[in-house]
Please model this.
Amino acid sequence: MDGDALIQIDGLTKRFGSFTAVDHVSFDVDRGEVLGFLGPNGAGKSTTMRMLAGFMPPTSGTARICGHDVQTDSVAARRMLGFLPEGAPTYPDMTVVAFLRFCARIRGYAGYGIDDRVECAVDLTRLEDVLLQPIETLSKGFKRRVGLAQALLHDPPVLVLDEPTDGLDPNQKHEVRALIDQMAPHKAIVISTHLLEEVEAICTRAIIIAAGRVIADETPDELRARHPSGRLDEVFRALTLPEEERDAA
Amino acid sequence: MRNVLTIARRELGGYFATPVATVFIVIFLVLQGTLTFNVGGFFDRSQADLLPFFNFLPWVFLLLVPAITMRLWAEERRLGTIELLLTLPVTQWQAVLGKFLAAWAFCAIALLLTFPFVITVNLLGNPDNGVIAAGYLGGLLVAGAFLAVGAALSALTKNQVIAFVLAVAVCFVFAVAAYPIVTDYLSQSTPVLASIARRVGVIERFGDFVRGVITLPDMIYFASFIAFWLFVNTLVLDARKAA
Model:
């Protein structure tokens, strides 16, 4: 294991009663890596990301961000983290600019620093035209971009984005991918997605998780090579479906 | 403290961004006015004080304060913003305190807007304004106590109706705890509980303020009552934030 990886997850486990949602998941993410987090619905993707963000306490195991344990040193860890929760929740009554200014203030910026960070985030996510609109009046695509702007605001070394392109139209998806691509060299990025083409487009590495366990952790090219067709969706199906269903499909 | 104030400011802005603030303040003032002037017999008493006003105040708070607190955490949970708020670099204490202070400041604003009562009574006679000020301080502390209870209970659920009903019920218990009818009953069955009940009754404590008496035990009572429920709030949040 590399000691200075920005994200270090070791034996992370989450049980709800007798149900094991995440089962001894371990991986590291270095600066410059874009990790695609794949898996069927209910596989434990969001639960893993919530634990990584320090929102949900793990049953066992540890997660570290820039060396800070997310449980014991959570505020320091969260300073280094930009997190887009599932569904990109934001405060619907607030205007875009008020919401982003709130996030900047709570991230410790003051005065011109706030204006500066908000302007930068708005620029990256192209929110200029809707700054003064209440978030509840925005389309789904804009709402997601507001969530993204919040995550990018403080230029964190670690980004954890839960389905960042869900609900965006093809052009917006392309923009977000370009944005992630542009930031990739300086950060450690984890994105969860259902879109396999997204993994091929931007990820340097892919983890497939099913029933809470990591079942593949390699580059998209290596993953593709697992199936004679060379297609990721075939590989995904082969890895995540039980034998009999796979034949029927 | 900076984080607490940032959260409080956002929260307080949220009240005024929606009709919540207007509806609450209008209903509060109408209710207090009707109860004081009509039911309380403010004019018939021919006394220059605000006793009828203060007599009804805790009961109006009992009904309306849970309406503020029911959304405090339940709404964050429903919208999913709790996940956003608690993954920002703030501690849970700061989030709990920020939300509480915003709600308290909002109650203070509503209470301040009852100033026409004070003007009225001063025009009609020569009331002891020191006693009235003490009554207002007591009213603010009662609101704080009910808010702290309601906020903690709101963290239990994403259903606002449940949060409201629970808060009214628990606040009611603490409101009447020191009433003779309760303590008499308790002293027959379990004397230990009776002596506790006599100490934790919110309305009895408030009564001291209304008489113009501000004592250290009363202040300590309200401070520890609020602190206790805010502490419960953080515990509930910790245990159930991801549920």
Notes: Residues 22 and 76 of chain A are 25 Å apart (CA to CA). Chain A touches chain B at residues 50, 53-57, 75-76, 78-79, 81, 83, 85-87, 89-94, 98, 102-103, 105-108, 134, 150 (CB under 8 Å).
